[in-house]
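Hi,

I'm pasting everything inline rather than attaching a file, because the server keeps stripping attachments. The sequence lines come first, and each chain or strand is labelled.
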Amino acid sequence: MATGARKLVLRTLGILGAGGVGLAFSLEQSLKASELELHPPKFGWSHSGLFSSLDHSAIRRGYEVYKNVCAACHSLKYVHYRDLVNVSHTEAEAKAEAAEIMVTDGPDEEGNMFQRPGRLSDSFPSPYPNEEAARYANSGALPPDLSLITLARHGGEDYVFALLTGYCDPPAGINLRDGLYYNPYFPGGAIGMAQALYNETIEYSDGTPAYASQLAKDVCVFLVWCSELHYDDRKRFLIKTLLLGPAITALVFYYYRFKWNSIFH
Amino acid sequence: MRKNNPVLSIMNHALIDMPAPLNISSWWNFGSLLGICLLTQIITGLFLAMHFSGHVILAFDNLVYMCRDVNNGWLLRTLHANGASMFFICIYLHMGRSLYFNSFVMHNTWMIGVTILLLSMATAFLGYVLPWGQMSLWGASVITNLLSTIPYVGAALVQWLWGGFAVDTPTLTRFFSLHFILPFIILALVIIHILFLHQTGSNNPLGIKSNSLKSAFHPYFTMKDLLGMVIMVFLLFFLVLWDPNKLGDPENFNPANPLNSPPHIQPEWYYLFAYAILRSIPNKLGGVLALAASVMVFYTLPLLFSKQIQSSQFYPLNKCILWTFLSVVLLLTWIGAKPVEAPYIVTGQVLTLMYFSYFMLEPWLAKKWDLLTS
Amino acid sequence: MAGFVTSIYNSVFRKTSTFVLAGAVGVFFFERAFDMLTDGIFEHINEGKLWKDIKHKYEENDK
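And the predicted assembly:
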């Protein structure tokens, strides 16, 4: 009798609890639909699996996209040419990439600054000397640094991809100031960046057809790598943890039961 | 030797020969887990401090550098950040156990415990400011500004705290110093917490004196605690390696910018219940007092205790309101992450009322039940 | 079998010094083997995506 009543109480509590959670969840969902900005869908990235590494061919192609398109306005100040070595480029290739830029160094023996070709230890060049210059060149909007961009935005690479490919005409009734463009994924809808990626904006050196979505996907993978240089290491560690953790737990659990054997009946 | 050496005998009394009730359940594991959490935080924090710079121009860059170019720096940093979450998961479960089984009857242990909770919350807040991202700066501004509601001295107090007229380098440097020292104060309090606990002995699920049912701490509870630790460390590593930023706010990967506030300022998940209580009081000073009260109120629990048996197990009505209270805390956590808008404001206010009414209903219901059953 | 276990026990696990030594040596080999195993799993799951799978395309330019 007592256990029956107890079960009933527990069951009622369970149903009430589940109902409460369901109610909260549905409130949460319905309210999302009424917000003014569009939330990006989850895309099936080849790196989003539990043990999946980044696609290094995509990092290499994404680097090409960044260098030829994004780098015109966006800096990548925390990424160095040395980071490319054995990730997307060989050491010789990375050196060649670095040598394409000119870096102000110095002072020399006479106290003057001088220009020299870039080295592996240099970070990627910034397109503007300072924030004011960047704002002035972009009618007041500051192009953000992209080094941590997929970590620094809600939705991460899904958001960046949706933003890059989501440009459309503004809906009726929305008038945009000159120099602003409409993008439903951008908070507020009016974004200072024009659509940058079209079919065949650049040509890939490995011959991959350069559709706009391909360009956007590759640059997103590149940016994920920029944000998390140790992405692949993390996945390796995760495999180790998931193999070793349960094994050690089982071992300790056995030993614990063994020690408690005289007390358990 | 372990019984005669003055230092070892203390450890012996606490960890080896200490008699412990045999019937304590896994809910009694969280104390030792908290010890491990504290040690993890101190050790990872020590290594992080070696690369930290307390200047607003350098702090963010140094952390990025640390995560990219220091060997396994990314791992240390994410372990420290997620370790804080693990700490609070364990603290809240530890407290939940105390509420359920009325362990707070041990006044001294409980009072020190609530103090440890307060200091841990302060430490985590100070630590969250150190990366100097957007949420660091704006979180620090919002929270320190709460003091300005204190009449007469508020404004002066805030400036004194900041070391200037805004949250800036002096603030960052002093927050770093305090974030470094507080864990050691917590460690000292933890030792006192354990000393007081061992004066009375642990509580147990039945809430009765259990001297006939005790065994030596080692090997029984050392093994049980070891098992708990292995599981917790495994879960922590899983979280860190699976999705290290799951519990964080993306906004904090943007460097702090005093000219541009983020659209939604919200604290980490473990403060959300208190944040919701703060925001549900329309009056600013009232909100701050409610925020303080939301944690301080736990100090009152031993004073309110009136049961004849020391455990909610035997008080069905108290059990009911305890589970309601815990659900309310969860719901407040949800409300704390919501904007201050139509459905959430009233919901938050109702939940706040329910939160505080628990502390009044608890002793009253217990008394009534004792009358009924005696 | 039993004789083998006994001789292992007598020669290795009975004395603390040899026991600790066995642990240290064992850990060394276990770590190497475990790393090889997990890295193998990782590289198998991500075949074709890693740098080692594509570097041959770019390395011949070096010479």
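Residues 15 and 36 of chain C are 31 Å apart (CA to CA).

If the labels don't parse on your end, tell me and I'll reformat.
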